[in-house]
Amino acid sequence: MGLIISISRTSAFAWVTLAMLIGVAVTVRLGGWQLSRAAEKEARHAAIVAQMAAPVLNTDVLLKDPSHFVQLHQRVDLVGQWLPQHTVYLDNRPMNGRAGFWVLTPLQLDASTRVLIQRGWVPRHQQDRTLLPAIQTPSGVVHMQGRIAPPPSHLMDLGTAAEAAGASPDTSKIRQNLDLQTYALQTGGALAVTVLQTDAASDGLLRDWPEITTGVEKNLAYAFQWFALAALQLMLYIWFQLIQPYRHARRSSF
Fold first, then answer.
1. pTM above 0.85, yes or no
2. Within a 10 A sphere around the Cβ of 180, how many other Cβ atoms?
């Protein structure tokens, strides 16, 4: 009978040990994966910082070599003419905690090249959401600075005030999202790239764009949680499977 109990305890100990080893291995692996994700983000951020530190490209260089248009976060110095008739306002885009619009207008660089400029932000009217704020769009040749950016982020399509009033989402000045291919067809030509304007606030527009950060804090927090869970499993195993049985055996021997 004693032999059977001993074998049973040995078997249980082996299974508990195996479960602990698997649990620790999995949680350590998950913690390591979160650390690798953090390292990837830091490397990507370093590449962005390096790109933003590269020499500013002017309009002539961009037009001679259009391949520069694909270099995200590259700083540019552009000269062209606004196409204000194609200005659109992207709704539900807050800035500094206030509701408002991102204002986008194409800039004609030459006869065949246009870029879409995310010019800045304006607040939304408190009483009438369809009432657009006044902004200035200079005529003639203008000079502006910015950086090549991804297209405007796509939000869940909740509908804008203009759409609620019956306007088509593809033709309204106020839009929830902007499909660049559709917009290019509507406005008469392809858009080489999207540029985020970085000049000081002007023309009734704010440009307090958020800084580009690594975003590794969440990954590091998850990694800490996984490693802490691994350590907790190991400590519980040592306490319940080694220390307590040893103390119990000592007390039984007296």
1. no
2. 13
